[in-house]
Amino acid sequence: MPIEFTHVPGKSAENSFFYDFADTATKLSLIEDAGFRKLVVDDPAGLLTNMDIAAQTLDRTGSLEVVLTHWAGVIEPTVAARQLAALDRGSGGRLSLRMLSEPLEDSDAEARPVGHSVVWQRIDEYLVLLKRLWSNDRPFDHEGAFYSVKGGFVPRKSPHGANLTIRLGGQSGTALRVAGRHADVFELAAGSPDEVRQMIERVRSAAAEHGRAGKLRFALPVRIRPEGWTGVADRAAGHRAVDIAGPPARIALALLPYAALGIEEFMITGIDRAGEIARVGRETITLVSNSLARREAEIPQPAAFAVPTDVRAPA
Fold it and tell me: What's the CATH number for 4-71+165-298?
């Protein structure tokens, strides 16, 4: 089972990872060389800045995929569809879209109740429109609860078309219904292996209603605390293994039980210094990848570990 590592830069308004892009470009090269497959772009400045950073990142790297954090309601779907298609097309198909839920902020929000379910309904309609704009061969009109489109059309499609990777998360039933319909990658919440297993089951059940249970991949956030690298004791904080202090080798061992559940991507945060990035690549990523390859070679079956019968690795 292939495993991917995604670098998630630290996010603070005072010290953005992307503040000095000359310095960032050096780190991007290191991230790429260290074995990270993807980079999350989620800057405190917001969506428009994210899109500019994504363009620069894709331009400065050769194989790194960009996970662009995006919100419905900031720009019109017709505009977003064109801009995202251009980014994906210019990078040779290295863009994916990470949709986060945010409160409604437009001027007509007071005309209707604003709440959790409304936010997710808007995301649902927004994604339906993006996919239609990325795939249609002629202009179309749309009149929905949140968006009105006349002659919607994107003339220059991206390599992915309507198959641009969509990433969603959430824990409520409403969020899971939208994710089950649209998500290609589901970003799980931190938790113990048993908690993660239960959430995977819930997400797959929601996706099954749309015939997509086997099409989902799962990503798990992992916060690494580099200060533990120089400590005397190795420890996995709270035994939850998604907030870990200890040497990179201990971190790798803590991640293996999650890979056994069908996790195909670890989203690593907490390491923004060059030395930390290099060491995680050299030790943690290498150890996890080698361990999985070795166990798969020993047990030539779809799952590399003993996985509970009700939890299978994504197809």
Answer: 3.20.20.30
